[in-house]
Amino acid sequence: LGLWIGNEFINLPHNFRAKDWANYCVTWSSHTGGAELWINSMVGEQRYLKSGYTIRPAGVFILGKDQDGFLGIS
């Protein structure tokens, strides 16, 4: 699983193996650049990207695979 913000990508590693339904949460702080992946209340390793970056109004949010190639990563 990964996170794109402002044309920068990071992998968010986690050693969770799903056997059933799972709850996923991704957090990112513009102030610190810290990003975390939480799965079923367990946090993975924190990564950093785009400290101080501001997401512009009317930005694009894609959850799942980029099926139409919008980001050029299909």
Automatic annotation (TrEMBL):
Coiled-coil portions: none
Pfam short name (any one): Pentaxin
Signal peptide start-end: none
Gene3D superfamilies: 2.60.120.200
Keyword Calcium (UniProt): yes
Keywords noted in UniProt: Calcium, Metal-binding
InterPro entries, per database record: ConA-like_dom_sf, Pentraxin_domain, PTX_dom
UniProt keyword annotation of Calcium present: yes
Tree of life domain: Eukaryota
GO molecular function: metal ion binding
Domain spans labelled Pentraxin (PTX): 1-74
Designated name of the protein: Carbonic anhydrase VI
Organism: Iconisemion striatum
